[in-house]
């Protein structure tokens, strides 16, 4: 039986500009108990919108001390198995995050993803992927694009390459308080928050936008779906998708999109 999650948090991510840039594409909604999701705005400051660093720091504060939360973030959490094979990397997600951040230091204050792509920062030449490479979960989701497919409409490549170092930061700051699914295991442990990759397109059409921008709508539908799934116990099914033993082994390295059967 799925543990109790009193809170559901949906985050629509953006890989634009730098980690300290105020971005209208960064949106976050919180659903508590039975109440509908509400937008969480950044603390009052000259910045009107969230920054990637600000969201990561807010999550650390919330997940460290508050009741368990179910968190869905809209970017890739790992790379295709071919990437691990090409660079002879251990099949270990925390080690992957460390290796990625060394080559793509996109959590540094003045670093754009494109700075690393262009060789100005980091060492992207030593850790490049190919846009034809797709994870098993992306294939199963249908329209989901590769985490290496840059510069196209609907791309998640830039948000993934900017977001991965912040997953590492959350893991370092929160330790065992947070379960990163499915890398820490397919089952959700009692009393801990759970952070998962999501794909808002799965649910976007199910709820009318009611005046929300596309980015707000994506964060809203994630929070609403997570809340409903946890309350109805259907979450159990999605935390343990029907995969073969081999597929499950691959997905434990590549990650899985919560909500994809």
Write the layout of secondary structure elements.
Layout (H helix, E strand, L loop, with lengths): L6 E6 L14 E6 L5 E2 L12 H14 L3 E5 L7 H6 L6 H11 L9 H5 L18 H6 L15 H18 L3 E3 L12 E5 L16 H19 L2 H5 L5 H10 L7
Parallel strand pairs: 1-4, 4-6, 5-6
Antiparallel strand pairs: 1-2, 2-3
Helix pairs in contact: 1-6, 3-6
Assembly category: single chain
The counted number of beta strands is: 6
Uncertain spans: none
Tally of helical segments: 9
How much helical structure, as a percent, in the residues? Answer: 25-40%
Structural classification: alpha/beta
Q: End-to-end span in angstroms?
A: 18 Å
Order of helices and strands: EEEHEHHHHHEEHHH
Q: How many domains, as an integer?
A: 1
**Silhouette:** globular
Task: Please give the largest β-sheet.
Answer: 6 strands, mixed
Radius of gyration: 17 Å
